[in-house]
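Milestone M4 deliverable, item 7.
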Amino acid sequence: MTGGRIKPDALLDFSTALMAAHGVDQAQSSEVARNMIWSELVGRENFGLSRLPLYLERVRAGGLNCPCTPRLDETTTGTALLDADGGFGQYAGRLGMEHAIAMARQHGTGTVGVRNSNFFGTGAYFVHLAADAGMIGLAMSNSFPKVAAHGGLKPVLGTNPFAFGAPRQNGESLMFDMATSALAGSTVRAHKASSEPLPEGLAIDGVGNPVTDPAKVDDGALLPAGGAKGYGLALFVELLAGVITGAGVSTGVASMYKDVDQAGRNGHFFMAIDISRFLPMESYYQRLEGLVSLLKASQPNGEVLLPGETRWDTYKANSSAGIELAAETRAQLERLNVSHGISPPWSQPVRAA
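Output delivered:
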């Protein structure tokens, strides 16, 4: 197996073809692959190709519907509900945010709730779609309960990500994307893989004692980020993405890892706001960059980073030099490819300049 960096387009073509070979329809395979490669480009590898074996296991087991037939219902001017028909959350998310953007162009704001969906990846991907269209974007999703309520002991809420994005004149949009739990589920899995203990104060057992062994988190609960503040945000996400969309709520959402043969029943919530309905874009950019200057100047001896700034640095570097896949991820993809014979792009890596 050859290492080295891989051209993003070649990796996109390979992952799309590999998904198609495993029975994923063209509409979903092309969009999910695009989503995963974007995650690799911005350095969110935990939402990239390392997830593909699990996705395809869920496809084989019937937990992901391929093909799916999403159904969109415009409920009022500027609002819509999308039934994702049990398909990939990344695909439903793209449809949902693109329709929110289209409604915002027409009406000033667009809001789309999604039900009958699955895990949608990183919210940053969707809010950047809105920012790239000159809009402020919001993206939220509920998930399988792993998080205790503030003051509670049992998991009743998901890690419930909340994301917002906004355009900048240089094209490097603001991208804020956080789990509303004290720790993301992917971080717990990384600690399990490395056997590295968790800091105290992030998880508890069934009677409220601190848990630092990542292998024991599943027997207890994660805590909300910032105590009551994170609990409020998680509840807000559950209300918008779950309750009002008609999606699964709390224990009504299935685990993507444990319930591979079941649809996730996740809900998502997307909003796009047309900035130009409030002020001219030139004025918006001037005002935003004035705020950015104040933020940067607030620590003259250090670097104040904007949400998403390091992601864009990584994106530019990886777009130029190519994506470097972890050895284990390449090995997993090789195993998925054994009986299909698709030429892996790492057999011809990007040559160093």
